[in-house]
Amino acid sequence: MRARDLMVDYPTVALTDPAIDAARLLARSNLPGLIVVDDRGAPFAVLPGTQVLRLAVPVYIQDDPNLAAVIDEAAADVFLTELGERTVRDSLPPQPHELPVVDPDDTVLEVAALMARTRTPLVAVVDHGALLGAITLDRLLDRVLGA
C-alpha cells in the first residue's frame, strides 16, 4: 500500500487566516489538525489542533493546571475567544519542526514512521511541490488494520 492509496482531499488554511477560523474548521469537520499552506499553495506546516489550544489557553494556566479549576465556568466556557485577532501563523511554534510531508509513492510504513517521528496525526502528500491530499492517523490505522 502506498501513500497515494491512503490520501484523501483535505482542507487547508493560509498563514494569514484567523486562528479562530482554523479552530472552527477543526471543530466543524472533526479534524486532527490542518495543513497550512504558503502563498503558492505549497505545504508550509501541519498545525495540530492542540497548537490552536496552546494559543488560546493562557500560559499561566498551562504552567499551573490547578489554576484552571479556580476560573468560573462562564469564563472557562469562552476561553477560545482569547484567540482574538491572532492568525494561523501565530499558532505555529517559533522553531520550525520537520515538515510532515510524504511522496505519493512512499509506503505505508514510511508514512507511519514519519507520523511517529514528528508526533503528528496528519501528513501531507506532495508531488513536485504540489499538495495532492493528506493522510490522517485514523485513515492509516483503518486501512492497515483492515488489510
UniProtKB/TrEMBL annotation:
* Keyword Translocase in annotation: no
Which Gene3D superfamilies does its entry note?
CBS-domain
> Is Secreted given among the entry's keywords?
no
Keywords, in A-Z order:
CBS domain
Q: Sorted alphabetically, which Pfam families does this protein's record hold?
A: CBS
Ranges for domain CBS come to: 94-147
Kindly provide the name given to this protein in its UniProt entry: Putative transcriptional regulator
